[in-house]
Specification:
This protein has a single domain, classed as Alpha-Beta Complex (Spore Coat Polysaccharide Biosynthesis Protein SpsA, Chain A). 31% of the residues lie in helices and 20% in strands. It is built from 6 helices and 11 strands. The strands form 3 sheets. Strands 1, 4, 5, 6, 9, 10 and 11 form a 7-stranded mixed beta sheet that branches. Strands 2-3 form a two-stranded antiparallel ribbon. A hairpin with a 5-residue loop joins strand 7 and strand 8. Helix 1 crosses helix 4. It is globular, with a radius of gyration of 19 Å. It starts with a strand and ends with a helix. The model has no long low-confidence stretch (mean pLDDT 95).
Length: 231
């Protein structure tokens, strides 16, 4: 059995009701649900939420909400792995233990069904316990600057002041869209960012975190441009 689990708690503070706020003509979470359904990878697409309104929207767009997430897993400090573990254990108690589980974030409107399928292919063939999308930084991280208490700047790695950009190792970051994992890895809490994981490499223009109002505005512009280019 393969599950898609979309965590979507109701207590977003920086962007209220972020998970169901309209984005591109649909509630934000609808994009993740639709990508999961269109991928054809899953026996069930499930939303894990503590919020009745989110649950209603999720069901209206084709997801199942077979349980409500408990309050102790719905605060600002609960990580992804405990939420996914809770969902897996719920299904185990129903006698339908999943073998592979994909966590798909509710605020990932750029997620694509073919990327989800590619992630599953990597999970099945690369001898790994997780597979998730990454993209490269658009500037060498070795030349990053910090602001000092005195209002000045200094390099994190001053030894690279004179190193040419093309001679620096390329760095990648989490795309914040989905994480495929073997159920055993989720259940024991194995770290995702580790040698146990294999990457699904995405182009930068299809990656945008949405944590602040500024992020949201940028994402809307980028989303609109992408849809116009595809038309």
């Amino acid at each position: 059995m393969r599950l898609a689990i979309i965590p979507a708690r109701g207590g977003s503070k920086r962007i209220p009701h972020k998970n169901i706020r309209p984005f591109g003509g649909k509630p934000m979470i609808a994009w993740s649900i639709e990508a999961a359904l269109q991928s054809g990878c899953f026996d069930q697409v499930v939303v894990s939420t503590d919020d009745a309104e989110i649950a209603e929207v999720a069901r209206a767009h084709g997801a199942a909400v077979p349980f409500m997430r408990p309050a102790e897993l719905s605060d600002d400090h609960t990580g992804t792995i405990p939420v996914i573990r809770h969902a897996i254990e719920w299904f185990q108690r129903q006698g339908t233990a999943p073998k592979q589980v994909c966590c798909i974030y509710a605020t990932a409107p750029f997620v694509r069904s073919d990327d989800i399928r590619k992630g599953l292919e990597i999970l099945d063939t690369a001898d790994c316990e997780y597979a998730f999308p990454v993209t490269s930084y658009d500037f060498p991280i070795q030349r990053a600057l910090r602001l000092t208490a005195e209002g000045r700047v200094e390099m994190f790695q001053p030894e690279h002041f004179n190193t040419r950009s093309q001679d620096l190792e390329e760095a990648y970051h989490d795309a914040g869209q989905f994480y495929w994992g073997q159920s055993t890895a989720w259940l024991v809490g194995k770290p995702i960012f580790s040698p146990a994981a294999a990457p699904v490499i995405l182009p930068r223009y299809r990656v945008q975190d949405i944590d602040t109002p500024e992020d949201w505005e940028r994402a809307e512009w980028l989303f609109k441009a992408m849809k116009e280019a595809e038309a």
